[in-house]
Write a structure and sequence with these properties.
Blueprint lengths: L2 H29 L7 H8 L3 H23 L2 H8 L2 H13 L5 H21 L10 H24 L4 H28 L4 H5 L12
Helix pairs in contact: 1-3, 1-4, 1-5, 3-8, 4-6, 7-8
Length: 210
């Protein structure tokens, strides 16, 4: 198997672990209380739920497999395949809730799979610059931080509505994308030891070590 094949396999396993963890945590959040509570209170209550911890363990497996995949493949390939977690989550959720996946849910899943194939083919996972400069990371921070904070604040205003869920999903997806890019850069420089990581652009404080 080539490096790309290994990265793709690890990324798919990571997506499966992510799907399992997401479904378990969602079921935990839905069933832990019937009352309308805030995010912090829900988090506090979740800490006492065994299912939430099992979902967290699956998330750790997901992140570990992602790091392994990023060591062998590109960010475009790994993050694109991570989206297949939805395709795994649909049948898993249907099994746990004893409900059928609707026709339209499968239609959107097929559209997602097609879009995923286009991203991988057009994105050319084997080409492109693998790492960014400190200046580029600063620009990303100046753009992303206010945007994500605004999404969280807007979600609090429209709490309980589907729009709030979409806004929080944008924050979660963007955070995972940044996590993948950061992990890719750190994995590449980790062979140089701790000091190599501290001096890397992805570890912003390392800028001052130069």
């Amino acid at each position: 198997m080539s490096k790309v094949d290994v990265a793709a396999l690890l990324a798919l396993c990571a997506a499966l672990a992510s799907a399992v963890g997401d479904v378990i945590r969602q079921r935990s959040a839905q069933e832990i209380t019937d009352k309308q509570v805030g995010h912090l209170e829900l988090f506090r209550m979740s800490l006492r739920d065994t299912r939430w911890w099992l979902g967290g363990l699956a998330a750790i497996v997901n992140y570990s497999l992602q790091a392994g995949a990023l060591a062998w493949g590109s960010v475009v390939l790994v993050t694109a395949l991570q989206v297949t977690g939805l395709l795994f989550a649909l049948p898993i959720y249907a099994r746990l809730t004893k409900r059928r996946v609707t026709r339209w849910e499968w239609v959107w899943a097929v559209i997602l799979a097609g879009a995923l194939a286009v991203v991988i083919i057009v994105g050319d996972p084997a080409s492109g610059q693998q790492r960014a400069s400190v200046e580029m990371w600063v620009i990303v921070g100046l753009v992303m931080v206010p945007l994500l904070v605004s999404c969280v604040l807007a979600a609090r205003i429209w709490a309980g509505s589907p729009f709030a869920a979409v806004l929080l999903a944008v924050v979660a997806g963007s955070s995972l994308a940044l996590f993948a890019v950061l992990t890719k850069g750190i994995v590449e420089v980790s062979e140089d030891g701790p000091m190599g990581v501290l001096r890397s652009p992805e570890f912003i404080p390392g800028y001052f070590w130069r």
